[in-house]
Amino acid sequence: MRVNGELKDLATTLTETDDVEPVTIDSEDGLAILRHSTAHVLAQAVQRINPQANLGIGPPVTDGFYYDFGVDTPFTPEDIKAISKEMQRIIREGQRFVRRVVTEDEARAAMADEPFKLELIDLAGGPGSGANAAEGASAEIGAGDLTIYENTTRDGEVAWKDLCRGPHLPNTRMIGNGWDLTRIAAAYWRGSEKNPQLQRIYGTAWPSKDELRAYQHRLEEAAKRDHRRLGKELDLFSFPEEIGSGLSVWHPRGGVVRGEMEQHARKRHIEGGYTYVYTPHISKEDLFLTSNHLITYKDGMFPPIVMDEERDDEGNITKQGQDYYLKPMNCPMHILIYKERARSYRDLPLRLAENGTVYRNELSGALHGLTRVRGFTQDDSHLFVTPDQLEEEVGKVLEFILSMLRDFGLTDFELELSMKDDEKSKWIGTDEFWESSTDALRRVAVASGLKLTEVPGEAAFYGPKIDLKTRDAIGRTWQLSTVQVDPNLPDRFDLEFMDRDGQKKRPIMIHRALFGSIERFFAILLEHYAGDFPVWLSPVQVVGIPVAEDFADYLGDVIRTLRESGVRAELDTSDDRMQKKIRNHTTGKVPLMLIAGEKDRDAGTVSFRFRDGTQQNGVPISDAVARIRAAIDSHALVHTVEDLA
Predict the structure, then answer these.
(1) Angle of the 390-407 helix axis to the 252-271 helix axis, nearest 10
(2) 442 labelled catalytic
(3) Is residue 36 part of an annotated ligand binding site?
């Protein structure tokens, strides 16, 4: 339950004045409690089998949980089977989760044999506590009292204990059978390579067996849709070792899809009043010192490149070199474009757009296909507005974003408004600015009609923002676009505009990335469609397959007609049998196949074969070309004959 806004165990003693809300097991909070409780059972099972195993941390995570252990030898699949059986026994025993508030000395005595827990106790309450102690450590030593959770038997004996913030389920039996252990990994203690390497066991837990099976089905479907696998199978992109980790190259077919994405977005942006600009990949350090990136974001930037150094004939330095950096963000350069000449209120809003490649020094372990890379292209836009234009412009931006994403077939959206909290030391700017800008974003979000979640304390230190999230075809949530209000960079760069009253004033800047990054958005679309793109995005839109060689010339003329109409069409003249050609192009995710034999040649028709395996015969050539062109222009997703109506 929640008591006065805080999560508490059901055993908590209540007063008449307490504000109490129930927490159901299928809610976000309830699932986290279920999963954290299951992580405790996992740790207890490991120590029953191997009493020498040392406990790390065991937090809930998205769709599951993990627990880290210090053990002499890595876990094996056979170990996992034994641990699972022991977990089943503990769950059936119905042990109670009992919370006990302890002093630091009592906590150290209880955890005397657990070196990692003792380290967390030392950090409790200090600057390295909670989430700062290690990813997931806030589940152990969050704000407030130090607490131990004891698993007690029906006889009241303590069967096992752990340093933990809680809360937990009343007893282990409530975990039920909707859980599973999923994989083994290695992890450095507190995320640092300088610390010991621990063994991590991941698991998942759901309120019922049916929900577990549904989740496992989603995982299987996600594996089939994995963009890394599809990228290789469909010859779209790769990461050559010779170039380096996290740096992609796009193959011709992937380049076609990317080109369509970029060209469509460019057309829509120009129609929406944006102007495209181009900026370098590299800059002197002074720019990023002024923008503060070299102070707040230096760890995410690549090391400097020293240039412009000059030496005399004897090798003595006559001019000191200058540090240059690969840009991690485009905004400072867009600001310089604004600042190049005097601006008037008549120039605003000024909307600058760029497909700008940026570079982030990501850890190798964090890289993941196209969704987490070291070099990527942001479809970046920066808008400069007067304060009284802010709400209207944010409304236009959000409307534009939603319209654009719908063009790509995404339709399920929700919004998150990141706001400041009450701790003033974390924020800059006046209360009036924060209140007015947050209210403006809130009104825009509410007017959209989408589900809105407000998140206090999650805003950047200089202004509120709206994040847009979408669900894909298998229900996964992806964060895509961000609309960020920023008065800070205009202030740091001393930007001005001449207002109607003849006074120089400061513009407000809006950061807006629609796709986030083109690479990541491409990966999301690839998985959303499982490679079966709408016709307009398909690398090859139509393949002609003659029934026999005698009909290749006839079908070749049809393919040429399609090409003249702007269709990406190919003729398969290979020696393979017709059925093998159909299988090959079905596997290659070609949306439309045209087949022609003697009857088609005599009648001036073609036969369509669709992704679902059905055919439509005897379609006049002119009708076929018109229907294909219409499917492309309407961004249709074609699987059946009805989709090509």
Answers:
(1) 140
(2) no
(3) no
